[in-house]
Amino acid sequence: MKPTFKPALNVFGAAALACAAFSANAATVTIATLNNPDMIELKKLSPAFEKANPDIKLNWVILEENVLRQRATTDITTGSGQFDVMTIGAYETPQWGKRGWLAPLTGLPADYDLNDVVKTARDGLSYNGTLYALPFYVESSMTYYRKDLFAAKGLKMPDAPTYDQIAQFADKLTDKSAGTYGICLRGKAGWGENMAYVTTLVNTFGGRWFDEKWNAQLKSPEWKKAVSFYTDLLKKDGPPGASSNGFNENLTLMSSGKCAMWIDATVAAGMLYNKQQSQISDKVGFAAAPTEATPNGSHWLWAWALAIPKSSKQADAAKKFITWATSKQYIELVAKDEGWASVPPGTRQSTYARPEYKQAAPFADFVLKAIETADPNHPTAKPVPYTGVQFVGIPEFQSFGTVVGQSISGAVAGQMSVDQALAAGNATADRAVKQAGYQK
Question: What start and end residues bound the annotated signal peptide (predicted)?
């Protein structure tokens, strides 16, 4: 009797069918994030997560910061469920959590060790004591400078510079024939781009967005002094096209040796000290974000965090992913791949306790202190009805903050005067809060 191969074929057929069924059941998690280096690294390392979780497939949507904010806001407000994970920040999270738009992040696994997460970060991503996003990295702001250029001119950067000193240094360090600019600052319009920086500048010059009765204050002497200082400094000592430069553009300029100083997010320290990413890794120094009339609100507080919209169809798989991406184990993965200086900062006490991190990141303790001392509840010298250092913690700010940012970017580009930019901005801010019913 001839042997039959039918059962074997059936076994193979069954296996193929099982595989097909399995891949059909694999949960696809769509992640909206921004094109910052730390997020690009997350995508690069994410096959390790997919390997450990073969029933989950990750689909990445990587966007420029302003575009990400628009897309995420549209998706969450319409409940369209386009994204299962959103990269959002300390501005959106409490507001969206309050509205019931985000899945609460309760019941995290014991080995996640939530108590290890820096308290400032947890508090900023919670509403009424419930956590709505897990911090991917947390930042404040600080001053970076080229130690070699300072030494060549016989200059010494103080630990806590004033803006007057910064302006004097910038004048002495600008060498346009050598392609070196005294200062790089954000000029690209956006409530989280140029206005994040400009708001800290206005705060330390003694200004505020609104008085206690929600009257806009952009025509005040403090705003005029701060914004005039900023536009004059960039026109005189900044790089060409400064009005188009956001965080990423200035990071590229600084790390390629074009800026003598740069005031921006503390997260950039890990990139500037990374020999693979920075031509000035052995020449970069750091100091506190500058102050002027008051220390209040001179350095910001921000978290880029991972949240799950209520509209996600893959909430369980999404939770598994964001737990992995913000875990101690993920930090170890980055350390192996990029070195300890480049791990996501500001999130975990255990990172700052690591001797390897302290050795690779001379800025570590300084950054943690900046994060812990930024005070969103007292961001200005005069009292205000809002919270937030570099933003106004109300939903309307996203819109009017960006419009004001466009006017101020126009002033940097020389398209309008500072007075015109601030008058237009004041009208926009006043109209927004009046329509929303804040002004009584």
Answer: 1-26
Query: What's residue 25's pLDDT?
Result: 72
Q: Which residues contact 332 (CB under 8 A, 6 or more apart)?
A: none
Q: Which two tokens stand for residue 95?
A: 């507001």
56 & 121 share domain? yes
Q: State residue 72 phi and psi, 5-degree precision.
A: -65, -40
Could you state, in chain order, the average pLDDT of each consecutive group of 10 residues for the chain (440 residues)? 43 45 74 96 98 97 95 94 97 96 96 94 94 97 98 98 98 95 98 97 98 98 98 97 96 97 96 93 97 97 97 97 98 96 95 95 93 93 97 96 98 97 98 94
Total residue count of the chain as it appears in this document: 440
Instruction: For residue 239, give the DSSP letter.
Output: P
Number of structural domains found in the chain:
2
- Please list, in sequence order, all residues whose beta carbon lies within 8 angstroms of the beta carbon of residue 359, skipping any fewer than 6 positions away: 340
Cβ–Cβ < 8 Å for 268, 144 = yes
Say if residue 171 is in the same domain as residue 275. yes
Q: Pick from 260, 369, 305: which is nearest to 136 by CA?
A: 305
Domain of residue 404, CATH code: 3.40.190.10
Residues 210 and 307 in one domain: no
- Pairing mode of beta strands 27-34, 85-89: parallel
Determine the structural domain holding residue 400 and report its residue range.
141-299+381-435
**322 & 278 share domain:** no
Indicate if 385 and 426 belong to the same structural domain.
yes
pLDDT of residue 24: 54
Verify that 177 and 274 share a domain, yes or no.
yes
